[in-house]
Amino acid sequence: MHVPDGFLDAPTSIATGAVAVAAIGVALRGARRELDDKAAPMAGLVATFVFAAQMLNFPVGAGTSGHLLGGALAAVLVGPWTAMLCLSVVLLVQSLLFADGGVTALGTNVVLMGVVGVLAGWLVFRALQAVLPKKQALVAPLAAVAAYLSVPITALAFVGLYAVGGTAPIPLDTLTTAMLGWHLVIGLGEAAITGLVVASIVTVRPDLVHGARRVLADRVVEIRTPVARTSA
Amino acid sequence: MGAGHGHRLHYHGHSPVHRAEPHHKLLALVGFVLLVVATPGDAYPFFAGYLAVLAAVVARSGVPPSYLLKRTVVELPFVVFALIVPFVSRGPQTEVWGVTVSEPGLVAAGALLMKGTLGVLASLLLAATTEPHDVVRGLERLRMPAPLVQILSFMVRYLDVVGDEMGRMRTALASRGFTARNPRHWPVIARSAGALFIRSYERGERVHLAMLSRGHAPGERA
User: Fold this and answer.
1) Domain span at residue A115?
2) Are B173 and B129 members of one domain?
3) Beta-carbon contacts of residue B60 (< 8 Å; ≥ 6 apart)
4) ipTM, interface predicted TM-score of the complex
5) Mean pLDDT value of segment A201-205
6) Mutation choice for B interface testing from A96, A194, A205, A207 by most B CBs within 10 A
7) Does one domain contain both B132 and B198?
8) pLDDT digit string (tens) for B104-128?
9) Is B112 domain-assigned?
């Protein structure tokens, strides 16, 4: 999934690096709002969670398995800015400590998975939440739809970058069809996993799910006073 | 596909490569890979030269080449892609072993493989010769913003803690006879991921409270 070194040419890689730095700067400011002063330990632990969750294998059958990308999941769980920081840090660690994803492609990977993936997921989620009734039971299905759409949107963003700085002369329409087709399938897995994970958290600790805050805020406390029994 | 990060790459040693300042190594890595990426794809003597330089540094580091080569498997999905490129690219066709492929596509695929492999080998060498907390220190020296350094160091510190927590959940599932075989088992795995999130989040809160109770003022360096 991670773009390696040499996939996009050097100028494009440097340009995406600059975009990634700017995006992380904005995210740092936004995350302070989402997490106030506990930003560092919270974002650090959530990043570790995303990293660990990506290692969970979900068997598809016939010996193959898929795993989570986690952009939309993180956005719904902790809010888009913190999610962007967490995904970026995860990509940095994977690139420097695990050699997954090229160092020169780090900017590209952060822009694609950390920024486009997270923002696309979050915007879809918010847009749906705005038009649909605010129900706690809807948080997980909406997260699933957001996760589904975020995957092909990220793939399209990759095609866009490839059109600018790709190194192999692949016809763009072939690449677009292949990437979209494949990622519409991958998106199904991402949607199912994201929906299931969010559902399991919403039932136990809805207060921890950032995307459920508006739903919880709308809940009214209902105080039922028992009718005083009159003794005969 | 980022699966399979379960192992640490560090290879213990005391070579000059191990002892070099981490921020120098990071700069050298980025410079080297940028140079590789910026080299035209058909300049084969240059790539041979880069490989020779890398081989010399690996030899100096004392990390067995097989240790690094085994771990280049992270590259695999991308190798598959590179192998498809000659078949789907434009340009004049040529015949290789009886199969018609695009000539510029073939050159591009070769370049992708060489650049990608050099990049992975160089990154593996950094990971093998530098402790994770030294990488964080190096990034700090290179003026990475302080909040980001803090998030990163928390992540590096708790990577094994959270990983072990997940391992214990797996053991608990396995000891109750659970084996995931097909998508029908996904809800169970997803529930453990959900539990992992709640535990990680609550651990973050406890860490924050522990920091405050030890006199850490908000906004100060950890």
Assistant:
1) 10-218
2) no
3) B15, B16, B17
4) 0.87
5) 90
6) A96
7) no
8) 888 888 888 888 889 999 999 998 9
9) yes
